[in-house]
Write a structure and sequence with these properties.
single chain; 629 residues; two-stranded antiparallel sheet; 66% helix; globular
Length: 629
C-alpha cells in the first residue's frame, strides 16, 4: 500500500510539471491560460496564425446557433422544430456537447409529434388514391423526423441513440410494421431506425460501432439486414459471414420463416443487393447495386444455406381455409422455381430431387398463370439477362397477340421504360402509341424527365438539351437541366454556359411567384454561377431570398424531383434529391467568403424554415473542420 501511495505522489508531481510546462508554453504565445482538460483533448485543425480570427468567428457562430435554438423551440411547425433543434445540436456538439444533448432531447419531442401527424396525412392520401383507382396507389413516403434526429444523435453519443430507440419501443409506434405482426422479413420501426444509424456509421468507416449498433436488427431476415451484411462483407468478410451463419440457424428454427425468407437469405451469397419477394398479388424487387457479383464464401457456409433453404421450403402448406401467409402457394412455387438452378449447380443431389418433387406437388395447387411464368423477375440474377434487342422483340411479339387496348398500352409502357434505361429516344415513340390519353400524358412526362436525368448523369449535354427542346418537362425540370448542362460545359465553352444560365433564369421566372419551385430554381441558378461567374452569386442568391418570401411553402431544403405515373396495371415513382435546390450549399459557400454579409442575407428570409436552414449552414461553415484538399 505504501508503494502505491509513493507511485501516486510521483504521478502527481509529473502531472503538475506537465501542466506547468503546458501553461508556460501557451502563455509564451500570448494566449489565455490553458482551457480545461476536455478542451485540450479536442483535436484542432486551426493553424496558429489563424487562431485569433478563427476563435472569434467560432464564438460568433456558436452564439448564432444558441440564439437560433431559442427561436426554434417556439416554431409552430413540429417538423421544422425537430429538424432545426437536431441540426443545431449536431453543429454545436464539438464546442458544447452538454447543450447539444439537451437540444437533441427537445428535438426528439418535436419529432414524435411531427411523425404522427405526417403519418396520418400519408395514410389519408393513400385512402383517397385507393378510392379513386379501385385499390392502387403510388406515393412517396413522408420524411421520418425521428430517424433524422436519431442518426445525428447516435453519431455523437451511443447512449443517447439507445435512449431514443427505447422510446420507440415504449411508444408502440412500430406495431403496424412489426415483424411479428406482418412477416418475418420486415423490420419493426425501431429495428429499421437502428439499422439506418448503423449504415451511416459504416459509411463513416466506424465498422465496430456500426456492428454494435446493428446487432439486434441482424437477428431478423429482411432486405435491410441482408443489405447491411453485404456492405459489411466488403470491409470485413469474416465479421459478416459469422453473423450470416447465425442468422441461418435462427431462420431454420423460426416457424414464421417462409419461402420469401429463403429468397432473401440466398441473396447474400448468390445475388448480393438484389432481392426478389413474391406475394399473392405480384412480385416485388429491390436492387441497390448496378452490378450483381456472387460472394466468394466458404463451401461450408454455402452448404448451410442449402440446408436451411430446403428445411423451410419443404414445410407443408397450412390447411385450406387457414392463413397462407404473404407468399402463399403461388409465392412458394415461384421461389423454388427461381432458386432451383442454384441447387442444381452446387447442392447435393438428394436436396435437388426433394425440391423438384415439392415443385411438382405444388403444380396441383398453383394457378395456370404462375406455372407458365418465366419472366425476367423469376430469372433475374439466376440466368444471364437476355440481350436488349431480344427482350424488345419479345414484347413487340406480345403486342401483336394482345387482345385488348389496355394490354397493348401496358406492353408499350414496358418498352418505353426499357428504352429509357438505355438512354434511347425510341422511348418517346413507344409512349406515343399508348391509346389511353391520360396514361399517355403521365408516362410521357415520366419518360422525358427520366431521359433528361440519364443524359445529365452520362454528361451527354447535346442529348440533354434535345430533351429540353422536345420533351414534356416542367419549368423546374428545365431549370435543373439547363444549369447542370451549363456546369458540364463551362470548361470548354464558358460563353455557352452563361447563355444556358440566362435561359435557366428565364425559365425560372415563368414559375408562379407563390410556387416554392421559383426560389428553388433561382438557387439552382446561383449554384451554377458559383462555377461559371462567381461575381454574380451574391445577387443571384438575393433574388432567391426575395422569391422565397413570396412562396409560403418554400422550406429551403428537401429539394427533389419526383417522377411518377399510375395506370390500372402499372405504376412507378422515382424520387431523387436535388441539392442544387437547397440553401445549405450556397450559404456555406457565401459564409466562407463573407461571414457577416451571409448572416445579414439569411436574416432576409421572412419564414422560419429557410431562415433556420441558412443560419445553420453558415454556422457549420465556420464550426466544422475544413477538409484537406
Amino acid at each position: 500500500m505504501l508503494l502505491d501511495m509513493k507511485h501516486l505522489k510521483l504521478l502527481g508531481i509529473v502531472l503538475a510539471v506537465f501542466v506547468s510546462v503546458a501553461d508556460a508554453s501557451a502563455q509564451t504565445k500570448g494566449d489565455k491560460p490553458a482551457a480545461p482538460s476536455k478542451k485540450v483533448a479536442t483535436k484542432s485543425t486551426e493553424t496558429p496564425a489563424a487562431d485569433p480570427e478563427l476563435k472569434e468567428r467560432r464564438a460568433k457562430a456558436r452564439d448564432l446557433l444558441i440564439s437560433l435554438s431559442s427561436d426554434a423551440r417556439t416554431f409552430q411547425d413540429q417538423t421544422l422544430r425537430g429538424r432545426s433543434l437536431a441540426r443545431i445540436a449536431d453543429a454545436l456538439w464539438q464546442v458544447d456537447a452538454e447543450q447539444g444533448r439537451l437540444l437533441f432531447r427537445k428535438a426528439w419531442e418535436a419529432a414524435e409529434v411531427a411523425d404522427q401527424e405526417s403519418d396520418r396525412k400519408h395514410q389519408e392520401e393513400i385512402r383517397q388514391q385507393k378510392a379513386r383507382t379501385g385499390g392502387g396507389y403510388v406515393t412517396s413516403l413522408p420524411p421520418n423526423i425521428r430517424r433524422e434526429v436519431l442518426r445525428l444523435a447516435a453519431r455523437h453519443d451511443r447512449a443517447l441513440g439507445e435512449e431514443f430507440l427505447e422510446k420507440l419501443k415504449t411508444q408502440k409506434i412500430e406495431a403496424a410494421n412489426s415483424a411479428s405482426t406482418t412477416s418475418p422479413y420486415r423490420l419493426s420501426e425501431a429495428l429499421s431506425q437502428r439499422l439506418s444509424v448503423a449504415i451511416e456509421l459504416l459509411r463513416a468507416g466506424e465498422l465496430e460501432r456500426a456492428l454494435q449498433f446493428a446487432e439486434p436488427a441482424l437477428a431478423v431476415v429482411s432486405i435491410q439486414s441482408m443489405n447491411f451484411l453485404s456492405d459489411v462483407r466488403e470491409k470485413d468478410a469474416s465479421a459478416a459471414d459469422s453473423r450470416y451463419a447465425a442468422l441461418l440457424t435462427s431462420a431454420a428454427n423460426n416457424p414464421q420463416s417462409d419461402a420469401n425468407t429463403v429468397s432473401l437469405l440466398f441473396s447474400y451469397i448468390f445475388t448480393p443487393q438484389l432481392f426478389v419477394i413474391f406475394t399473392g398479388s405480384g412480385t416485388s424487387t429491390s436492387q441497390s447495386s448496378d452490378k450483381i457479383t456472387p460472394a466468394a464464401v466458404a463451401p461450408e457456409l454455402r452448404t448451410a444455406l442449402f440446408q436451411t433453404g430446403v428445411a423451410i421450403l419443404l414445410r407443408p402448406l397450412p390447411p385450406a381455409g387457414q392463413d397462407q401467409g404473404i407468399a402463399g402457394a403461388d409465392g412458394k412455387y415461384l421461389v423454388i422455381k427461381r432458386l432451383l438452378p442454384f441447387y442444381e449447380q452446387s447442392a447435393p443431389s438428394e436436396m435437388v430431387e426433394s425440391l423438384r418433387g415439392h415443385l411438382n406437388a405444388l403444380n396441383a395447387v398453383v394457378s395456370d398463370d404462375e406455372r407458365r411464368r418465366d419472366d425476367e423477375w423469376i430469372n433475374r440474377g439466376v440466368k444471364p439477362e437476355k440481350p436488349a434487342e431480344e427482350r424488345e422483340q419479345s414484347l413487340l411479339d406480345r403486342i401483336e397477340r394482345a387482345k385488348t387496348s389496355a394490354e397493348r398500352d401496358s406492353l408499350y409502357i414496358e418498352l418505353a421504360l426499357m428504352a429509357v434505361n438505355k438512354g434511347d429516344f425510341k422511348a418517346r415513340d413507344f409512349v406515343s402509341k399508348v391509346d389511353d390519353s391520360e396514361v399517355r400524358k403521365q408516362v410521357q412526362a415520366y419518360v422525358d424527365a427520366s431521359l433528361a436525368r440519364h443524359f445529365v448523369q452520362k454528361k451527354l449535354t447535346d442529348q440533354a438539351l434535345e430533351v429540353f427542346h422536345k420533351g414534356d418537362l416542367t419549368q423546374i425540370q428545365k431549370v435543373w437541366l439547363l444549369t447542370e448542362c451549363a456546369k458540364l460545359i463551362v470548361k470548354t465553352d464558358q460563353q455557352k454556359a452563361l447563355e444556358l444560365v440566362e435561359e435557366a433564369t428565364t425559365q425560372a421566372r415563368r414559375i408562379d411567384v407563390s410556387d416554392p419551385a421559383l426560389p428553388q430554381g433561382l438557387i439552382a441558378v446561383a449554384n451554377a454561377l458559383k462555377v461559371i461567374d462567381a461575381g454574380r452569386v451574391w445577387d443571384a442568391t438575393f433574388d432567391a431570398v426575395k422569391a422565397a418570401n413570396s412562396a409560403e411553402r418554400f422550406t429551403g431544403e428537401d429539394g427533389m424531383m419526383i417522377l411518377k405515373f399510375q395506370s390500372k396495371g402499372q405504376s412507378s415513382v422515382h424520387t431523387s434529391s436535388v441539392a442544387e435546390f437547397d440553401l445549405d450549399g450556397i450559404f456555406r459557400e457565401l459564409a466562407n467568403q463573407d461571414y457577416d454579409r451571409a448572416v445579414e442575407l439569411a436574416r432576409g428570409f421572412q419564414a422560419e424554415g429557410p431562415r433556420a436552414v441558412a443560419t445553420i449552414a453558415i454556422a457549420r461553415a465556420v464550426l466544422e473542420p475544413k477538409k484537406k484538399q
